[in-house]
Design a protein that fits this description.
280 residues; 2-enoyl-CoA Hydratase, Chain A, domain 1; 9 strands
């Protein structure tokens, strides 16, 4: 499928999604949202995709919401009860994704350009990356479910400091604050992101990774480790009898690389998903 505001490529089971409005620093609009939701849905059902990389074309990652409508940008029709934030639709879809997601932040990531990366599992940044939770400087509030994601990633005090001030800060401060895990030179950014993605794609069980991703994220909302113990126990019981578990052990004993065959679309445990999806 061809897209207008994003570009997609698959190589060695790694899907790279490039935000592609470079003339506007990849500003986020309704069509980009639609295309991203579409490609993520396709990626979840494609067993030839084991990991996903997000990056931006040109010199920016994403400059935030497209402000071409000027002061009317955030004036929405209808009622507050029925309105749904577009950035939140994207981050909730990313939260539910069955594949690991890596953000390769190549330049400015401001507003939704920053908050869209929060449900991504690994964030690495170019030395040219900049970040800004600029909502208070625009008279609005953090969106894209960031009031849930951001404090869990960087802690409540750092989340509030960045959100209160709305200032733009560099990659080093983002790393010091725990927002990104690694900073690399611009010319090495995609190479490093791809290296991380391929390590997952080549060496691990797809079912194991999907289960691990959902177990880790969903346990952030639980109140007692017993909830994790319950899911751990079911998952170990089910996956322990799988072809992938047999292959993983045999490959280790034989001192060879494993060749996993189980599929996310056919071999997830029968209790997956174990949660009830809340409605809006």
């Amino acid at each position: 499928m061809s897209y207008e505001d994003i570009q997609c490529s698959i190589d060695s089971k790694v899907l790279t999604i490039t935000l592609n409005r470079p003339e506007r620093l990849n500003a986020f609009n309704a069509n980009m949202l639609h295309e991203l939701l579409n490609v993520l849905e396709d990626a979840d059902t494609n067993d030839n995709i084991r990991a996903i990389i997000f990056t931006g074309s040109g010199r920016g990652f994403c400059a935030g919401a497209d402000l071409s409508e000027g002061s009317k940008t955030f004036q929405k029709k209808g009622s507050a009860e029925s309105h749904r934030d577009g950035g939140g639709k994207l981050t909730l879809r990313l939260y539910n994704c069955k594949k690991p997601v890596i953000a390769a932040i190549n330049g400015p990531a401001v507003g939704v350009g920053a908050t869209m990366t929060l449900p991504m599992d690994i964030r690495i940044a170019s030395t040219q990356a900049k970040f800004g939770l600029v909502f208070a400087r625009r008279g609005i509030v953090p969106e894209a479910c960031s009031s849930w994601f951001l404090p869990r990633i960087v802690g409540i005090s750092k989340a509030l400091e960045w959100s209160y001030s709305g200032r733009v800060f560099g990659a080093e401060e983002a790393k010091d604050g725990g927002l990104v895990s690694e900073i690399v030179q611009p010319e090495s950014l995609l190479e490093r992101a791809t290296e991380i993605a391929r390590e997952i794609a080549v060496n691990t069980s797809a079912v194991s990774v999907t289960m691990t991703r959902q177990m880790m994220w969903r346990m952030l909302g639980e109140t007692h480790p017993m909830q994790a113990h319950k899911i751990d126990s079911k998952a170990i019981f089910h996956l322990g009898q799988s072809d992938d578990a047999k292959e993983g052990i045999n490959a280790f004993l034989d001192k060879r690389d494993p060749k996993f065959s189980d599929s996310v679309n056919t071999n997830l445990p029968d209790f997956f998903p174990w949660w009830e999806e809340p409605e809006f």
